[in-house]
Amino acid sequence: MNIKRLLWKYFLPAFTGVVVNALYNIVDRIFIGRGVDALALSGLSAVFPLMLIIFAFGMLVAIGANVRISINMGKKDYKRAEWVLGNAVTLGIIISALLTLFGYIYRYPLLKMFGAGQGALPYALEYFEYILFANVFATIGFILNNACRAEGNPKIAMYSLFISAGTNTILDPIFIFGFDMGVKGAAIATIISQFILCIWVVAHFYSKRSVLKLHLANLKLNGQIIYYILTIGFAPFSMQLAASAVQAVLNTQLIRYGGELAVGAMGIINSVAQLLVMSIIAINMASQPIIGFNFGAKQYARVRDTLITCIWAATSIAIGGFLLTQLFPGAIVRIFNNDNPELFELGRKGLRIFTLFFPIVGFQIITGNYYQSIGKAGIAAFLSLLRQVIILIPMLYILPPFTQLEGVWFANPISDLLAGIISALFLVKALKKLKGGTEKFN
Known about the structure:
The protein has one domain (3-434). Helix content is 84%, strand content 0%. The protein is built from 18 helices and no strands. The longest helix has 37 residues, at 38-74. It starts with a helix and ends in an 8-residue tail after the last helix.
Protein backbone atom coordinates (compact mmCIF):
# COMPACT_ATOMS: atom_id res chain seq x y z
CA MET A 1 0.00 0.00 0.00
CA ASN A 2 1.06 3.61 -0.55
CA ILE A 3 2.99 4.81 2.54
CA LYS A 4 0.76 7.83 3.23
CA ARG A 5 -2.39 5.73 2.96
CA LEU A 6 -0.88 3.01 5.11
CA LEU A 7 0.23 5.50 7.78
CA TRP A 8 -3.23 7.07 7.80
CA LYS A 9 -4.78 3.63 8.20
CA TYR A 10 -2.67 3.04 11.30
CA PHE A 11 -2.56 6.64 12.58
CA LEU A 12 -6.27 7.37 12.85
CA PRO A 13 -7.07 4.57 15.29
CA ALA A 14 -3.74 5.08 17.12
CA PHE A 15 -4.38 8.83 17.49
CA THR A 16 -7.93 8.28 18.64
CA GLY A 17 -6.73 5.61 21.02
CA VAL A 18 -3.91 7.57 22.66
CA VAL A 19 -6.01 10.72 23.00
CA VAL A 20 -8.77 8.71 24.62
CA ASN A 21 -6.17 6.96 26.79
CA ALA A 22 -4.66 10.30 27.83
CA LEU A 23 -8.12 11.28 29.07
CA TYR A 24 -7.67 8.81 31.95
CA ASN A 25 -5.47 11.23 33.89
CA ILE A 26 -6.88 14.38 32.37
CA VAL A 27 -10.49 13.55 33.25
CA ASP A 28 -9.44 12.56 36.77
CA ARG A 29 -7.66 15.92 37.18
CA ILE A 30 -10.60 17.90 35.82
CA PHE A 31 -13.16 16.25 38.10
CA ILE A 32 -10.87 16.26 41.15
CA GLY A 33 -9.88 19.90 40.54
CA ARG A 34 -13.53 20.92 40.32
CA GLY A 35 -15.11 18.38 42.69
CA VAL A 36 -12.61 18.35 45.56
CA ASP A 37 -10.06 21.21 45.82
CA ALA A 38 -6.72 22.56 44.58
CA LEU A 39 -4.72 20.55 47.16
CA ALA A 40 -6.31 17.34 45.87
CA LEU A 41 -5.03 18.34 42.42
CA SER A 42 -1.56 18.76 43.93
CA GLY A 43 -1.86 15.30 45.53
CA LEU A 44 -2.71 13.74 42.18
CA SER A 45 0.30 15.55 40.67
CA ALA A 46 2.53 13.81 43.23
CA VAL A 47 1.07 10.42 42.24
CA PHE A 48 1.66 11.14 38.54
CA PRO A 49 5.44 10.40 38.48
CA LEU A 50 4.82 7.10 40.30
CA MET A 51 2.22 6.19 37.69
CA LEU A 52 4.83 7.02 35.03
CA ILE A 53 7.19 4.49 36.64
CA ILE A 54 4.49 1.81 36.54
CA PHE A 55 3.70 2.76 32.94
CA ALA A 56 7.43 2.61 32.10
CA PHE A 57 7.58 -1.07 33.00
CA GLY A 58 4.51 -1.69 30.85
CA MET A 59 6.24 0.04 27.93
CA LEU A 60 9.43 -1.95 28.55
CA VAL A 61 7.53 -5.13 27.73
CA ALA A 62 4.89 -3.80 25.29
CA ILE A 63 7.11 -1.81 22.93
CA GLY A 64 9.93 -4.37 23.01
CA ALA A 65 7.47 -7.14 22.16
CA ASN A 66 5.79 -5.07 19.44
CA VAL A 67 9.02 -4.39 17.58
CA ARG A 68 9.93 -8.10 17.68
CA ILE A 69 6.42 -9.12 16.61
CA SER A 70 6.51 -6.70 13.64
CA ILE A 71 9.96 -7.79 12.49
CA ASN A 72 9.07 -11.49 12.77
CA MET A 73 5.83 -10.94 10.85
CA GLY A 74 7.85 -9.14 8.16
CA LYS A 75 9.97 -12.31 7.94
CA LYS A 76 6.77 -14.44 7.80
CA ASP A 77 7.78 -16.16 11.06
CA TYR A 78 4.33 -16.11 12.72
CA LYS A 79 5.15 -18.93 15.14
CA ARG A 80 7.95 -16.91 16.71
CA ALA A 81 5.75 -13.79 16.77
CA GLU A 82 3.21 -15.74 18.86
CA TRP A 83 6.01 -16.93 21.12
CA VAL A 84 7.02 -13.30 21.72
CA LEU A 85 3.38 -12.43 22.49
CA GLY A 86 3.03 -15.19 25.09
CA ASN A 87 6.33 -14.33 26.79
CA ALA A 88 5.31 -10.66 26.94
CA VAL A 89 2.13 -11.55 28.86
CA THR A 90 3.99 -13.65 31.43
CA LEU A 91 6.70 -11.05 31.87
CA GLY A 92 4.05 -8.34 32.30
CA ILE A 93 2.26 -10.28 35.04
CA ILE A 94 5.48 -10.90 36.99
CA ILE A 95 6.74 -7.31 36.77
CA SER A 96 3.38 -5.68 37.62
CA ALA A 97 2.84 -7.97 40.65
CA LEU A 98 6.29 -7.06 42.02
CA LEU A 99 5.67 -3.36 41.44
CA THR A 100 2.35 -3.51 43.28
CA LEU A 101 3.98 -5.13 46.30
CA PHE A 102 6.90 -2.69 46.35
CA GLY A 103 4.68 0.36 45.84
CA TYR A 104 2.32 -0.56 48.66
CA ILE A 105 5.12 -1.23 51.16
CA TYR A 106 6.94 2.05 50.42
CA ARG A 107 3.97 4.26 49.50
CA TYR A 108 4.56 6.89 52.25
CA PRO A 109 8.22 7.69 51.53
CA LEU A 110 7.67 7.43 47.77
CA LEU A 111 4.86 9.99 47.73
CA LYS A 112 6.80 12.39 49.93
CA MET A 113 9.87 11.99 47.72
CA PHE A 114 7.80 12.78 44.61
CA GLY A 115 6.44 16.04 45.97
CA ALA A 116 3.40 15.34 48.16
CA GLY A 117 3.33 18.07 50.82
CA GLN A 118 1.50 17.83 54.14
CA GLY A 119 -1.76 19.19 52.74
CA ALA A 120 -1.73 17.04 49.60
CA LEU A 121 -0.39 13.78 51.11
CA PRO A 122 -3.76 12.33 52.33
CA TYR A 123 -5.26 12.78 48.85
CA ALA A 124 -2.19 11.27 47.18
CA LEU A 125 -2.23 8.22 49.47
CA GLU A 126 -5.92 7.56 48.92
CA TYR A 127 -5.59 7.64 45.14
CA PHE A 128 -2.30 5.72 44.91
CA GLU A 129 -3.36 2.82 47.17
CA TYR A 130 -6.37 2.04 44.98
CA ILE A 131 -4.50 2.46 41.68
CA LEU A 132 -1.80 -0.01 42.77
CA PHE A 133 -4.24 -2.91 42.95
CA ALA A 134 -5.31 -2.43 39.34
CA ASN A 135 -1.70 -2.53 38.15
CA VAL A 136 -1.72 -6.11 36.80
CA PHE A 137 -4.90 -5.48 34.77
CA ALA A 138 -3.57 -2.16 33.46
CA THR A 139 -0.22 -3.66 32.41
CA ILE A 140 -1.64 -6.71 30.62
CA GLY A 141 -4.28 -4.55 28.95
CA PHE A 142 -1.58 -2.16 27.72
CA ILE A 143 0.70 -4.94 26.42
CA LEU A 144 -2.02 -6.76 24.51
CA ASN A 145 -3.63 -3.58 23.22
CA ASN A 146 -0.31 -2.59 21.66
CA ALA A 147 0.07 -6.11 20.26
CA CYS A 148 -3.21 -5.58 18.38
CA ARG A 149 -1.48 -2.83 16.39
CA ALA A 150 1.65 -4.91 15.85
CA GLU A 151 -0.37 -7.77 14.34
CA GLY A 152 -2.22 -5.37 11.97
CA ASN A 153 -5.44 -4.71 13.94
CA PRO A 154 -5.21 -1.00 14.83
CA LYS A 155 -9.00 -0.53 14.93
CA ILE A 156 -9.36 -3.20 17.62
CA ALA A 157 -6.78 -1.30 19.70
CA MET A 158 -8.76 1.90 19.20
CA TYR A 159 -12.08 0.30 20.21
CA SER A 160 -10.42 -1.13 23.33
CA LEU A 161 -9.34 2.28 24.55
CA PHE A 162 -12.70 3.82 23.66
CA ILE A 163 -14.47 1.29 25.84
CA SER A 164 -12.02 1.63 28.72
CA ALA A 165 -11.61 5.41 28.78
CA GLY A 166 -15.32 5.89 28.09
CA THR A 167 -16.11 3.81 31.17
CA ASN A 168 -13.71 5.93 33.24
CA THR A 169 -15.22 9.19 31.98
CA ILE A 170 -18.77 8.06 32.78
CA LEU A 171 -17.93 6.64 36.22
CA ASP A 172 -15.76 9.57 37.41
CA PRO A 173 -18.61 12.07 37.99
CA ILE A 174 -20.88 9.33 39.34
CA PHE A 175 -18.40 8.29 42.03
CA ILE A 176 -16.91 11.76 42.75
CA PHE A 177 -20.12 13.82 42.76
CA GLY A 178 -23.00 11.32 42.88
CA PHE A 179 -21.60 9.10 45.66
CA ASP A 180 -19.49 11.93 47.16
CA MET A 181 -16.40 9.67 47.18
CA GLY A 182 -13.89 12.35 46.14
CA VAL A 183 -10.40 11.17 45.19
CA LYS A 184 -11.26 7.57 46.08
CA GLY A 185 -14.11 7.65 43.56
CA ALA A 186 -11.77 8.73 40.75
CA ALA A 187 -9.40 5.86 41.60
CA ILE A 188 -12.19 3.25 41.67
CA ALA A 189 -13.49 4.46 38.31
CA THR A 190 -10.00 4.00 36.86
CA ILE A 191 -9.67 0.49 38.33
CA ILE A 192 -12.97 -0.65 36.79
CA SER A 193 -12.09 0.76 33.37
CA GLN A 194 -8.65 -0.89 33.35
CA PHE A 195 -10.14 -4.25 34.31
CA ILE A 196 -12.59 -3.98 31.38
CA LEU A 197 -9.69 -3.18 29.00
CA CYS A 198 -7.76 -6.25 30.17
CA ILE A 199 -10.70 -8.62 29.68
CA TRP A 200 -11.47 -7.16 26.24
CA VAL A 201 -7.97 -7.57 24.77
CA VAL A 202 -7.41 -11.05 26.25
CA ALA A 203 -10.68 -12.13 24.64
CA HIS A 204 -9.49 -10.68 21.30
CA PHE A 205 -6.43 -12.95 21.14
CA TYR A 206 -8.66 -16.00 21.59
CA SER A 207 -11.10 -14.83 18.92
CA LYS A 208 -11.24 -15.34 15.15
CA ARG A 209 -10.41 -11.67 14.54
CA SER A 210 -6.81 -11.96 15.75
CA VAL A 211 -3.91 -12.76 13.43
CA LEU A 212 -1.79 -14.05 16.31
CA LYS A 213 -3.10 -16.31 19.07
CA LEU A 214 -2.36 -16.65 22.76
CA HIS A 215 -1.22 -20.21 23.45
CA LEU A 216 -0.55 -21.55 26.94
CA ALA A 217 2.68 -23.17 25.73
CA ASN A 218 4.03 -19.75 24.70
CA LEU A 219 3.55 -18.35 28.22
CA LYS A 220 6.64 -20.28 29.35
CA LEU A 221 9.53 -17.80 29.49
CA ASN A 222 12.37 -18.15 26.98
CA GLY A 223 15.66 -16.43 27.83
CA GLN A 224 16.46 -15.30 24.30
CA ILE A 225 13.02 -13.84 23.67
CA ILE A 226 13.02 -12.03 27.03
CA TYR A 227 16.43 -10.58 26.16
CA TYR A 228 15.17 -9.33 22.79
CA ILE A 229 12.06 -7.79 24.36
CA LEU A 230 13.97 -6.02 27.13
CA THR A 231 16.78 -4.67 24.94
CA ILE A 232 14.37 -3.07 22.46
CA GLY A 233 11.94 -1.97 25.16
CA PHE A 234 14.71 -0.28 27.15
CA ALA A 235 14.50 2.97 25.14
CA PRO A 236 10.82 3.78 25.90
CA PHE A 237 11.32 2.36 29.40
CA SER A 238 14.21 4.73 30.09
CA MET A 239 12.22 7.61 28.61
CA GLN A 240 9.32 6.98 30.97
CA LEU A 241 11.61 6.52 33.97
CA ALA A 242 13.26 9.77 32.97
CA ALA A 243 9.88 11.46 32.83
CA SER A 244 9.20 10.22 36.34
CA ALA A 245 12.58 11.42 37.62
CA VAL A 246 12.05 14.79 36.00
CA GLN A 247 8.59 15.06 37.51
CA ALA A 248 9.98 14.29 40.96
CA VAL A 249 12.66 16.97 40.58
CA LEU A 250 10.08 19.38 39.14
CA ASN A 251 7.71 18.84 42.07
CA THR A 252 10.41 19.35 44.69
CA GLN A 253 11.71 22.49 42.94
CA LEU A 254 8.16 23.79 42.51
CA ILE A 255 7.42 23.36 46.22
CA ARG A 256 10.71 25.08 47.04
CA TYR A 257 10.19 28.07 44.77
CA GLY A 258 6.38 28.25 44.36
CA GLY A 259 4.63 26.17 47.04
CA GLU A 260 2.08 23.35 46.80
CA LEU A 261 -0.17 25.25 44.39
CA ALA A 262 2.70 25.41 41.91
CA VAL A 263 2.69 21.59 41.94
CA GLY A 264 -1.04 21.71 41.16
CA ALA A 265 -0.32 24.10 38.28
CA MET A 266 2.30 21.66 37.01
CA GLY A 267 -0.36 18.96 37.07
CA ILE A 268 -2.47 21.05 34.70
CA ILE A 269 0.53 21.76 32.45
CA ASN A 270 1.41 18.07 32.40
CA SER A 271 -2.11 17.17 31.33
CA VAL A 272 -1.91 19.52 28.36
CA ALA A 273 1.66 18.52 27.46
CA GLN A 274 0.73 14.84 27.73
CA LEU A 275 -2.15 15.29 25.31
CA LEU A 276 0.11 17.04 22.79
CA VAL A 277 3.01 14.60 23.11
CA MET A 278 0.67 11.60 22.97
CA SER A 279 -0.67 12.93 19.66
CA ILE A 280 2.87 12.76 18.29
CA ILE A 281 3.42 9.36 19.89
CA ALA A 282 0.37 8.19 17.94
CA ILE A 283 2.44 8.79 14.80
CA ASN A 284 5.16 6.61 16.33
CA MET A 285 2.62 3.91 17.08
CA ALA A 286 1.35 4.07 13.50
CA SER A 287 4.83 3.98 11.97
CA GLN A 288 6.44 1.36 14.22
CA PRO A 289 4.85 -1.74 12.65
CA ILE A 290 5.35 -0.26 9.15
CA ILE A 291 9.03 0.53 9.76
CA GLY A 292 9.63 -2.76 11.57
CA PHE A 293 7.90 -4.86 8.90
CA ASN A 294 9.63 -3.15 5.96
CA PHE A 295 12.99 -3.17 7.72
CA GLY A 296 12.60 -6.91 8.29
CA ALA A 297 11.69 -7.28 4.61
CA LYS A 298 14.71 -5.09 3.60
CA GLN A 299 12.45 -2.53 1.91
CA TYR A 300 14.62 0.44 2.97
CA ALA A 301 13.12 2.95 0.51
CA ARG A 302 9.71 2.46 2.15
CA VAL A 303 11.29 2.88 5.58
CA ARG A 304 12.73 6.25 4.47
CA ASP A 305 9.41 7.40 3.01
CA THR A 306 7.69 6.49 6.27
CA LEU A 307 10.25 8.40 8.34
CA ILE A 308 10.00 11.58 6.25
CA THR A 309 6.20 11.54 6.24
CA CYS A 310 6.14 11.08 10.02
CA ILE A 311 8.48 14.04 10.57
CA TRP A 312 6.20 16.37 8.62
CA ALA A 313 3.11 15.13 10.43
CA ALA A 314 4.70 15.36 13.90
CA THR A 315 6.00 18.87 13.26
CA SER A 316 2.55 20.00 12.15
CA ILE A 317 0.99 18.70 15.37
CA ALA A 318 3.75 20.30 17.45
CA ILE A 319 3.21 23.70 15.83
CA GLY A 320 -0.55 23.45 16.33
CA GLY A 321 -0.07 22.61 20.02
CA PHE A 322 2.35 25.51 20.41
CA LEU A 323 -0.15 27.98 18.96
CA LEU A 324 -2.97 26.76 21.24
CA THR A 325 -0.91 27.03 24.42
CA GLN A 326 0.50 30.43 23.50
CA LEU A 327 -2.79 32.01 22.41
CA PHE A 328 -5.26 30.48 24.89
CA PRO A 329 -3.38 29.49 28.09
CA GLY A 330 -6.00 30.99 30.42
CA ALA A 331 -8.91 29.19 28.79
CA ILE A 332 -7.02 25.88 29.03
CA VAL A 333 -6.23 26.33 32.75
CA ARG A 334 -9.86 27.22 33.56
CA ILE A 335 -10.99 23.79 32.34
CA PHE A 336 -9.25 22.25 35.38
CA ASN A 337 -9.98 24.86 38.06
CA ASN A 338 -11.84 28.17 37.86
CA ASP A 339 -12.16 29.24 41.51
CA ASN A 340 -8.54 29.71 42.61
CA PRO A 341 -6.94 32.88 41.15
CA GLU A 342 -3.41 32.00 42.35
CA LEU A 343 -3.55 28.56 40.71
CA PHE A 344 -4.92 30.14 37.53
CA GLU A 345 -2.07 32.65 37.27
CA LEU A 346 0.60 30.04 38.01
CA GLY A 347 -0.84 27.66 35.42
CA ARG A 348 -1.35 30.30 32.73
CA LYS A 349 2.20 31.66 32.94
CA GLY A 350 3.82 28.26 33.36
CA LEU A 351 2.02 26.75 30.38
CA ARG A 352 3.22 29.48 28.03
CA ILE A 353 6.85 29.18 29.09
CA PHE A 354 6.83 25.37 29.26
CA THR A 355 5.80 24.97 25.59
CA LEU A 356 7.97 27.78 24.19
CA PHE A 357 10.04 25.49 21.89
CA PHE A 358 7.41 22.81 21.38
CA PRO A 359 7.49 23.15 17.53
CA ILE A 360 10.87 21.33 17.44
CA VAL A 361 9.82 18.48 19.74
CA GLY A 362 7.97 16.53 17.03
CA PHE A 363 10.94 15.43 14.93
CA GLN A 364 12.92 14.56 18.10
CA ILE A 365 10.31 12.02 19.17
CA ILE A 366 10.07 10.58 15.65
CA THR A 367 13.85 10.21 15.34
CA GLY A 368 14.09 8.26 18.60
CA ASN A 369 11.23 6.00 17.51
CA TYR A 370 12.92 5.28 14.17
CA TYR A 371 16.07 3.95 15.83
CA GLN A 372 13.95 1.96 18.24
CA SER A 373 11.88 0.44 15.41
CA ILE A 374 14.95 -0.85 13.55
CA GLY A 375 16.41 -2.40 16.71
CA LYS A 376 19.05 0.27 17.53
CA ALA A 377 18.17 0.35 21.23
CA GLY A 378 21.29 2.22 22.40
CA ILE A 379 20.79 5.23 20.12
CA ALA A 380 17.06 5.29 20.81
CA ALA A 381 17.67 5.30 24.57
CA PHE A 382 20.25 8.10 24.28
CA LEU A 383 17.94 10.32 22.24
CA SER A 384 15.08 9.68 24.65
CA LEU A 385 17.20 10.45 27.72
CA LEU A 386 18.84 13.48 26.13
CA ARG A 387 15.80 15.73 26.31
CA GLN A 388 14.28 14.45 29.55
CA VAL A 389 17.32 13.74 31.72
CA ILE A 390 20.75 14.64 30.40
CA ILE A 391 19.87 18.28 29.74
CA LEU A 392 16.63 18.95 31.63
CA ILE A 393 17.52 17.80 35.15
CA PRO A 394 20.71 19.92 35.35
CA MET A 395 18.72 22.91 34.06
CA LEU A 396 16.19 22.44 36.88
CA TYR A 397 19.00 22.95 39.39
CA ILE A 398 21.00 25.62 37.53
CA LEU A 399 18.26 28.13 36.61
CA PRO A 400 15.94 28.48 39.67
CA PRO A 401 18.53 30.00 42.06
CA PHE A 402 18.85 32.92 39.63
CA THR A 403 15.26 33.34 38.38
CA GLN A 404 13.22 31.53 41.08
CA LEU A 405 9.98 29.89 39.83
CA GLU A 406 10.46 31.13 36.27
CA GLY A 407 13.70 29.15 36.14
CA VAL A 408 11.75 25.95 36.79
CA TRP A 409 9.41 26.72 33.90
CA PHE A 410 12.23 27.78 31.52
CA ALA A 411 14.26 24.58 32.06
CA ASN A 412 11.95 22.65 29.71
CA PRO A 413 12.14 24.85 26.59
CA ILE A 414 15.92 25.19 26.94
CA SER A 415 16.18 21.39 27.07
CA ASP A 416 13.92 21.10 24.00
CA LEU A 417 16.17 23.46 22.05
CA LEU A 418 19.51 21.82 22.88
CA ALA A 419 18.18 18.27 22.44
CA GLY A 420 16.64 19.29 19.11
CA ILE A 421 20.02 20.33 17.73
CA ILE A 422 21.63 17.00 18.66
CA SER A 423 18.66 14.93 17.45
CA ALA A 424 18.84 16.69 14.08
CA LEU A 425 22.37 15.32 13.56
CA PHE A 426 21.15 11.75 14.12
CA LEU A 427 18.18 12.33 11.82
CA VAL A 428 20.41 13.53 8.96
CA LYS A 429 22.60 10.44 9.40
CA ALA A 430 19.57 8.14 9.31
CA LEU A 431 18.17 9.71 6.13
CA LYS A 432 21.54 9.42 4.38
CA LYS A 433 21.78 5.71 5.22
CA LEU A 434 18.29 5.05 3.91
CA LYS A 435 18.71 7.08 0.72
CA GLY A 436 18.40 4.90 -2.35
CA GLY A 437 16.98 1.98 -0.41
CA THR A 438 19.97 -0.30 -0.93
CA GLU A 439 22.22 0.19 2.12
CA LYS A 440 22.82 -2.84 4.33
CA PHE A 441 22.19 -2.53 8.06
CA ASN A 442 24.33 -4.58 10.42
